[in-house]
Design goal:
about 325 residues; alpha/beta; TIM Barrel; two-stranded antiparallel sheet; 11 helices
Length: about 325
């Protein structure tokens, strides 16, 4: 039976009043998602006019430097203020020597981006996994990733990025002491203003699969459990973040994002530092695949997930959805 218009509950508070229209909902919205909090990852390779779509990441491509500049310019015009560069060298070796090559794709792209898009914030990933022939994040001795020797190479790679003009270097390797070594090397090289964004709480996750195809960085043997965080641990992540801050990290990151929103919240609440979250390749591919099958409303769930990451404490979000989300917002 339909209630008559004369039937009224005696309610002092009616929360639905503030949900009645979009204008009211917007006015009282607690979490603001805006394009200026997005960082757009780009995969840079050698050559010219190269734009190779990555099968597991629809719409995302490996780009030559000229195409990367074009893609970054389009993102900037849509309101995305920053890019994060990953390199795809022509040749790899056991020590990842191309990581510090001033003429490698990342360093070349940094110079081109700063020359053509002066207001763009250029960030660079610092790791060896894209550059080593074995696909691991450092120098390998037998089955062991050697920590301290790897850190020295990472510091030199970071310095080469700063020399090229990078605004932010982002070590993602999870070696012990790498933030301190990079900070010292940058400062001694005259780059004390270069920002370090540390992948501080980077978990050993199954969500990285598509990235490893994109960056050609799948380990040839073993895995990365020796240095990436155990997905079951929170306190360990907080200790790691604290160490990176003590060593000079200006921005700390939690990666992946959605499976670790609780960690993201704890990091932001405990340390209060600028905090990034990486919506990784597997999170992106998962939504794309479901949307392609008609199982999800992609624009809606894209914005919902990004809002959730922001609500959990992220000041900035690294996402392959940066351009799509910016256009909608």
């Amino acid at each position: 039976m339909v209630a008559t218009t004369t039937a009224r509950l005696s309610l002092t508070r009616r929360p639905r009043r503030l949900r009645r229209t979009e204008a009211i909902r917007s006015l009282v919205r607690e979490t603001r998602l805006t394009p200026d909090c997005f960082i757009y990852p780009l995969f840079v390779c050698a050559g010219e006019g190269v734009r190779r779509e990555i099968p597991s990441m629809p719409g995302i491509c490996q780009l030559s430097v000229d195409e990367a500049v074009e893609e970054a310019a389009a993102a900037k015009a849509e309101g995305v203020p920053a890019v994060l560069l990953f390199g795809l060298p022509d040749e790899k070796d056991p020590t990842g020597s191309a990581a510090a090559d001033p003429d490698a794709p990342v360093q070349t792209a940094v110079r081109a981006l700063k020359r053509n898009l002066r207001d763009l914030l250029v960030m660079t990933d610092v790791c060896l996994c894209e550059y080593t022939s074995h696909g691991h994040c450092g120098i390998v001795d037998g089955d062991e990733i050697v920590n301290d020797e790897t850190v020295m190479l990472l510091a030199q790679a970071a310095l080469s990025h700063a020399v090229a003009g990078a605004d932010v270097v982002a070590p993602s390797d999870m070696m012990d002491g790498r933030v301190a070594a990079i900070r010292r090397t940058l400062d001694e090289g005259g780059f004390d203003r270069t920002v370090i964004m540390s992948y501080a709480a980077k978990y050993c996750s199954g969500f990285y699969g598509p990235f490893r195809e994109a960056a050609d960085s799948t380990p040839q043997f073993g895995d990365r459990r020796s240095h990436q965080l155990d997905p079951a641990n929170v306190e360990e992540a907080l200790r790691q973040v604290e160490l990176d801050i003590e060593q000079g990290a200006d921005i700390v990151m939690v990666k992946p994002a959605l499976p670790y929103l609780d960690v993201l919240t704890k990091v932001k609440e405990r340390f209060g530092r600028p905090t990034a979250a990486y919506q990784v390749s597997g999170e992106f591919a998962m939504l794309k695949a479901a949307a392609q099958r008609g199982w999800l409303d992609e624009p809606r769930v894209m914005l919902e997930t990004l809002t959730g990451i922001r609500r959990a404490g992220a000041d900035m979000i690294i996402t392959y959805y940066a351009r799509e989300a910016a256009r909608l917002l």
